[in-house]
Amino acid sequence: MAEQQSLMVPTDEYLKSGIHIGTKFKTKYMEKFIYKTRPDGLNVLNIQQIDERIRTAADMLSKYAPEDIVIVSRRENGWKAVKAFGKATGARVFAGRYTPGLMTNPQLKTFIEAKIMMVVDAWPDKNAMMDAYKVGVPVIALCDTNNTANYIDLVIPCNNKGKKSLGLLFYILTQRYMINRHMIKKPEDFKMKMEDFSDE
Length: 200
What we know:
Low-confidence stretches: none
Shape: globular
Strand order of the largest sheet: 4-3-5-6-7
Oligomer: single chain
Structural class: alpha/beta
CATH class: Alpha Beta
Helix content: 25-40%
Mean pLDDT: 95
Distance between the termini: 29 Å
Order of helices and strands: HHEEHEHEEHEEH
Radius of gyration: 16 Å
């Protein structure tokens, strides 16, 4: 029971979302987050570690005003979740294509400055990560068992391909960010629902 208390959402909510189900491939770096490999070959991530890292990410993001945060998701499965985060918090969101040079080339009409970046998948979102790296902006990245950790300041181990798992992750993140920034007083004041972050 003690474990239940310390998690931000009950274990079964994490399990239902599939946030802990990785891929059949694992990189050297992600091994430490893997709890076990199932008979079908899928690697299963440690829920305690997922929870800890989401908490750390929320606290890291909370040090920054919404206009200093950039969230990037090239992969369509993350669009609804990141847009909901942006809508609730006021953070800048790129759902779809991120133009390389947005943060490094002041000549661009669309040039932006940011103080922290979060990406949904280090592989498709590598252009954004490289931009952040070049200008010294810290990067938080959601990483599945097959991701590497180059240019990442904080890794959140999770299933970063499933709509449900991304929905839950951004739901928790949004709520904690808003509480930390005093945008809402307590979890009950959080008016958004799980459906706002995920279709399924």
